[in-house]
């Protein structure tokens, strides 16, 4: 074997395995702004940023407020030949509510509203005590894990591109006006992208563990 | 990027007789079956997980067929009803000179799903072949598949928005067709298939005898 035997004597508590390729690393705290990549596959493992917990909390609150606005304000309005119809975000999900497509209405509502909100709540719940230097609240690990696991299914940004496509499809046929909810949603995806850039998973897991 | 891509001889958690959590990276001894830090189930690096990959992959493929055969949208304008499939919708946009949007729909609903079926099958088959070490190109492919797969959902959202908005009675109304459900299921199943794939297998060479 060509491996050095030294790492074997190390305490597993100080090790970290790359989730993408299983390579063992010695986990350590980095100065803010530095990044640690896996030495085999190059996946970013640790990327702390200055006061990132506070930033994530602030951005999550912003996102929640924008989402609540997006739910209650009108989203799009269409008018053609003197007829009008408007729809909220809720109405968009409910487009599938007739007949046997109903489960799809539930799925769409989860993907564009419920899961993004859940992720905001879970992040605030996890990080609020940690940002204040207190031990993590009970079940913080479960909350953060669920937030991570639900990430691929929260599709706010895909929804807004879908809206753009729908607007182009309707462009020649009718007049469509954009409601406040549309703009709230646009702001929301920027907030989500900013928030994600501040999340360093390892740093958060480490903080949860230290209690 | 300054990393040595080929000749890194690395000790893995498996080699060290340990098991790494794929969710949070914490390392445990073999007798743990759940990660005590994040609560995720610990998975050994073996090919058993590929069964789940293939099962979701097949389910996704099966639902992709009706998604293309049945109409995605039913459009009623002034008494005349028109039904559009996914490809039909893209062709119609192209005819109306909306080339950009036609391309988005075509890429998101046809090229990405088909590309995903091929890519996941290729990755899963390459893993079964013990002589090959996938390495960086395979990991890159897997990352692209994971990143891009969810974007196929665009078409489902377009259908939802159009059917919610265009309800102008006799003048024009749009209703979702059965393909919307099977397409959404197909996308969800292929996402689950990609998520079941364990990228650590890409790096596993022939079984080491220690």
Automatic annotation (TrEMBL), chain A:
The chain crosses the membrane at residues 53-76, 177-194. Pfam families: PqiA (PF04403). Keywords: Membrane, Transmembrane, Transmembrane helix. It comes from Thioclava marina. This is Paraquat-inducible membrane protein A. The lineage of its organism: Bacteria, Pseudomonadati, Pseudomonadota, Alphaproteobacteria, Rhodobacterales. InterPro entries: PqiA-like.
From TrEMBL, chain B:
This is Paraquat-inducible membrane protein A. PANTHER family: INTERMEMBRANE TRANSPORT PROTEIN PQIA, INTERMEMBRANE TRANSPORT PROTEIN PQIB-RELATED. InterPro entries: PqiA-like, PqiA-PqiB_transport. Its main location: membrane. The chain crosses the membrane at residues 53-73, 101-127, 148-170. It comes from Thioclava marina. Keywords: Cell inner membrane, Cell membrane, Membrane, Transmembrane, Transmembrane helix. It is found in: Cell inner membrane. It comes from the Bacteria. Pfam families: PqiA.
